[in-house]
Amino acid sequence: MAGEQLQVLNALDVAKAQWYHFTAIIIAGMGFFTDAYDLFCISLVTKLLGRIYYHVDGAEKPGTLPPNVSAAVNGVAFCGTLAGQLFFGWLGDKLGRKKVYGGLFAIIISSAFKAVFDAPPYEVDALSSTVPQADYVWRIILMVGALPAALTYYWRMKMPETARYTALVAKNAKQAASDMSKVLQMDIEAESEKIEQVEKEKPRFGLFTKEFAKRHGLHLLGTTTTWFLLDTAFYSQNLIQKYIFSAIGWIPSSKSMNAIEEVFRIARAQTLIALCSTVPGYWFTVAFIDKMGRFAIQLTGFFFMTVFMFALAIPYDHWTHRDNRIGFVIMYSLTFFFANFGPNATTFVVPAEIFPARLRSTCHGISAASGKLGAIVGAFGFLYLAQNKDKGKVYAGYPAGIGVKNSLIVLGGINALGFLFTFLVPESKGKSLEEMTGENEDDEGHGEAELSSSTSHRTVPIA
């Protein structure tokens, strides 16, 4: 058996890019888009909810969400994501990627409709600073998040289950060969006997076993800690953006604008940051990830995120002068560039490549959930630190508890820890998915990798 390969996986590894691959990329990308959109739109939605439902008659300032309500809104989003990643990650290894993906999108679409139509209607406040249209804006923002899920659901259901899950987890070599024969447009032999033979020769280890701890324990520790630290810094940085924009004078105070104008100005500033730094960072990763490798990109990203955070924080008083604000925005944008040309891309990729197929979805879910735990720590931590300890309120201009400067110092320290924990993450560049599992290194020379391709020219992350 040693050295033999399962033809369906070998064909998948060596196949040239074709429509099947592009469809898989689009579907996966829509999933990430939905996740990111739903989480990052919360800051805009809470701005509007505060002005609509928490205005005070006769007050001079626009309404804002009380700290406990704001914490609840953000907490529900993050806690729901964390629980979902753990549960549906595990379910993906039990039922298959296709079934779970489709079910999740159905839940997202129905939940978005329920949130939008169950909320009470708008009431005019004493300032009329919150125009009636604001009530429609926050609902539209939430509904837009359901559109990619609805558009992607149909196409994902038309695609077959991934070949690796069908062959290596479900043990249906005939179905895997049939599915890939259609999408790759070539004849592929089923080879059911190979799977049966290996099942007899070698039992499989589970997630909570000494064997898994020996082979992948440090790897899982590396993917969970780095994703935790990244999201602690990344989501905190996004949540305090509006405070930073106000502190440097890029956006005027809330009381000088109506609700829609304020949200528009914040969204415009965030869009500018995204177009000039976030999006280019991702494309740099696309261009260099198979040349530099995952490890090098993640290490570089954490390093420069640390450098630029401290470069903004230490001479903070210099950056707040009107003449230096453009420099501040450029430096601040570079932290987002190196987040995406760095750990905000690689932490998604690596867990999908280094764990065995039967545990891949579970381990990816655990890694992603640790990231959302970091987002919860960052969101709630900065919300607490931002409180005015005398009156128990949050200042509208910037986090009053520790200030923008100290917030940036804390974020820099978190990124430095991410740099250190990256050394626990293995490099997967130039290896097939089965080679990365290490299951061909057992004493008898048998394992799951015998069923797969021995090609080493690239990794194909189609689990």
TrEMBL record:
Pfam families: Sugar_tr (PF00083). It is found in: Membrane. It is a multi-pass membrane protein. Residues 451-463 have a biased composition (Polar residues). The keyword Cytoplasm does not apply. GO terms for molecular function: transmembrane transporter activity. The keyword Transmembrane helix applies. Residues 432-463 are annotated as: Disordered. GO terms for cellular component: membrane. Residues 436-445 have a biased composition (Acidic residues). Keywords: Membrane, Transmembrane, Transmembrane helix. The chain crosses the membrane at residues 20-49, 69-88, 100-117, 137-155, 272-289, 295-314, 326-345, 365-386, 407-426. InterPro entries: MFS_sugar_transport-like, MFS_trans_sf. This is Inorganic phosphate transporter 1-4.
